[in-house]
Automatic annotation (TrEMBL):
The keyword Calcium does not apply. InterPro entries: RNA_pol_sigma70_r4_t2, RNA_pol_sigma_r3/r4-like, WH-like_DNA-bd_sf. Residues 234-282 form the RNA polymerase sigma factor 70 region 4 type domain. The lineage of its organism: Bacteria, Pseudomonadati, Pseudomonadota, Alphaproteobacteria, Sphingomonadales. Pfam families: Sigma70_r4_2. This is RNA polymerase sigma factor 70 region 4 type 2 domain-containing protein.
Length: 320
């Protein structure tokens, strides 16, 4: 990658939340400003101002100047008003989602003057407060300067398997809460079905109370609407699973339980629970079962990719 491309990507990553999301959707997902304005129930001029601000800040970053936000008299006031409106809507949606997932406490939202990433920290703190002490300590040790939810993806040596498993469980608890980061929530609202930011679909897992737990609400009747042929085939595959695998799959996909909780409820090991969930997912979706060779090759490629990214960041830091 050339140096000007690295500067361009660094400038895009350093943008404020709203201009960055709109800029990526417009340039990488082919979403027009008119469609954005219609989805957000706002005027096209505010969207155009956000895109203009994003371009100006990226060019300022590439020219080695300090990027500054658009002043109020040049349209920055309209951008700030749109940010406040969307941020308030995202907070309301988050509180409703967490209440449906069984979290009784309220989120301690930061001041509106703080960046949107501060809201991510507040939601993470609420979810982590419900975890066991060992997981809370692992979460506190993993935090640095970036949002806590992103730091759970950092590289960790293989011999620290216990810490890796604890951080992975914290990450699953955060993702199973139903809460979504502001950029993913906004991108799904503007362009649903585009699978932002990874461009591929991921299974939606939501933590919901079980029938024997407080706050349980029966799911609505999903058979009211006619099923497609693919849905009928998936239901037939699900019904043909062995009972233990069937229960593990439902506890995972319908109630958002972790491997440890599923293992404790079914009387098996956590590794066996994860193995049954993976097999059930591949069988229900109609995917080809992965071989041991494929799994080893994928694991090696993923670790090698992380190593290359770390080396690239170190070289970039030395050049700066």
């Amino acid at each position: 990658m050339h140096s000007y491309e690295e500067q361009w990507l660094a400038g895009m990553d350093g943008l404020p939340a709203l201009p960055r999301i709109l800029f990526r959707l417009h340039n990488f997902y082919d979403v027009e400003p008119e469609a954005m304005a219609q989805a957000l129930a706002t005027d096209r001029s505010s969207i155009a101002l956000c895109l203009t601000e994003a371009r100006s800040m990226i060019h300022a970053r590439c020219a080695f100047d300090v990027p500054e936000r658009m002043p109020a008299d040049a349209g920055g006031l309209a951008i700030a008003a749109l940010e406040r409106q969307l941020r308030r809507q995202h907070r309301d949606w988050t509180e409703q989602t967490l209440a449906e997932s069984g979290y009784s406490s309220a989120v301690l939202w930061p001041e509106p003057s703080e960046p949107i990433e501060a809201d991510h920290e507040a939601v993470s703190a609420l979810i982590v407060a419900t975890l066991p002490p060992t997981l809370r300590r692992a979460f506190d040790r993993s935090r640095h300067r970036a949002p806590a939810t992103a730091n759970l993806w950092r590289y960790m040596p293989l011999w620290r398997g216990i810490v890796r498993r604890r951080l992975d469980r914290v990450r699953r608890e955060i993702s199973y809460s139903g809460w979504r980061r502001f950029d993913e929530w906004l991108a799904d609202r503007i362009a649903p079905g585009r699978n932002y930011p990874y461009s591929y679909a991921t299974p939606t897992v939501r933590r919901r109370p079980l029938p024997d737990e407080e706050g349980y609400n029966p799911a609505p009747d999903l058979n009211a609407a006619p099923l497609t042929e693919r849905q009928k085939l998936m239901q037939a595959r699900l019904a043909s699973l062995p009972p233990l695998t069937h229960d593990a799959w439902l506890l995972f996909i319908r109630h958002g339980r972790t491997d440890e909780e599923i293992a404790e409820r079914l009387g098996i090991s956590a590794r066996a629970a994860r193995r049954r969930i993976d097999r059930a997912m591949r069988f229900v979706c109609g995917w080809r079962a992965s071989s041991l060779t494929f799994q080893l090759r994928f694991s090696i490629q993923r670790r090698w990719s992380k190593r290359r990214q770390q080396c690239a960041r170190l070289l970039a830091a030395f050049r700066d």
